[in-house]
Amino acid sequence: MDLKDLRKDFGKESFDEQKLGEEPLIPLKQWITFAVEQKIPESNAMVLSTCANKKPSSRIVLLKELTDDGRLIFYTDYSSRKGKELAANPNASLLFFWYQLERQIRIEGTVSKVEEVLSETYFNSRPVESRVSAIVSKQSESVESLDKLIAERAFLLENPDKIKRPQRWGGYALKPDRIEFWQGGKYRMHHRIVFERNGMVWKKSRLAP
Q1: Rounded to an integer, what distance in angstroms lies between the CA atom of residue 2 and that of residue 79?
Q2: Fold held by 17-125+167-206
């Protein structure tokens, strides 16, 4: 497979570094909000990368809340591979990429479980079909067959009183200590502005593309 000639020149949008300000949480919210407003498909999708035993792994998760203090919240199965890796090493990264906007955001920080009340509230707000799937699917574990999962789903749908959040399912929050804003530039002269936390202060710098 020859892919060396596949390329796209970026730079259709102007870039004003000053609009990012001197701390990253405001532009972080602005860029995510803008992607949603532009109706980018799965605009809240982000790559979550974890690393346990010096072996990195990545997968897509969905951002469900950006708190006022900058925590990024997503929900999953605590007993899944990602959950076990986060228990072993809470340092993780998130990556948003919006091709249509020629933008990406790289975020690094530490992850912790959210309060149970948040997990409970969000779980109960989901469509019943999604709640049932979360209950019967022990994420990342081997399954006997798809038919068995379908049968378990059918049983719960017929017995709604048994639809309760399992303790193994809930939210995580990543607290950033490094955020990099990237916007495509012409001739591969991309714009990379990084903010790194030093205590309560953020240090801002431009990186070579």
Answers
A1: 40
A2: Pnp Oxidase; Chain A (2.30.110)
Residue 146 parent element (H or E): helix 146-158
d(CA 206, CA 155): 56
| Cα 154 to Cα 73: distance, rounded to the nearest angstrom | 30
Residue 185 burial class via C-beta count within 10 angstroms: exposed 0-12, middle 13-18, buried 19 and up: middle
46, β-bridge pairs: 61
| Domain residue extents for the chain | 17-125+167-206
pLDDT by residue for the chain (209 residues), tens digit each?
888 778 778 888 788 899 999 999 999 999 999 999 999 999 999 999 999 999 999 999 999 999 999 999 999 999 999 999 999 999 999 999 999 999 999 999 999 999 999 999 999 999 999 999 999 999 888 988 999 999 999 999 999 999 999 999 999 999 999 999 999 998 889 999 999 999 889 999 999 99
pTM greater than the 0.90 cutoff: yes
196 Cβ contact list (under 8 Å, min separation 6)? 177, 178, 202, 203, 205
Count of positions (residues) in the chain: 209
- Catalytic status, residue 165: no
Q: One of 165, 188, 192, 197 is an active-site residue; which one?
A: 188
